[in-house]
Design goal:
Layout: E1 11-21, E2 26-35, E3 43-51, H1 56-67, H2 76-81, E4 85-91
Parallel strand pairs: 1-4
Antiparallel strand pairs: 1-2, 2-3
């Protein structure tokens, strides 16, 4: 099955903040997804505070983008094949209040 992106999706930027709850030993994140950063048709989607560690923020972003109809790709490799530039960044060791949207 061929995966595609919507014609207008050229770049996806995912910027996340991560907080580690030392008491319970769990990691949480929130993120901002910018589609077509710096372009006139740029759009932003916010991922709220949620449980996840490692690359969970990337997979949550892809799931959100797919649900919103911006992409049909199931993974980052499919995005690259279809020419979409994916940039990700996670700021670690944030305070819990920094993750509030």
């Amino acid at each position: 099955m061929e995966t595609q992106t919507t014609p207008q999706t050229k770049t996806i930027d995912v910027n996340a903040k991560e907080w580690f709850d030392k008491v319970n030993g769990n990691s949480y994140f929130s993120a901002e997804i910018v589609i077509n950063y710096g372009q006139p048709d740029a759009q932003t989607i916010v991922l709220p505070f949620q449980y996840g560690y490692g690359d969970a923020y990337i997979y949550a972003a892809l799931r959100e983008l797919k649900d919103a109809g911006y992409i049909t790709a199931d993974n980052t490799a499919d995005l690259r094949i279809n020419g979409v530039i994916l940039r990700t960044h996670k700021q670690k060791n944030c305070k819990k209040r920094e993750l509030a949207n």
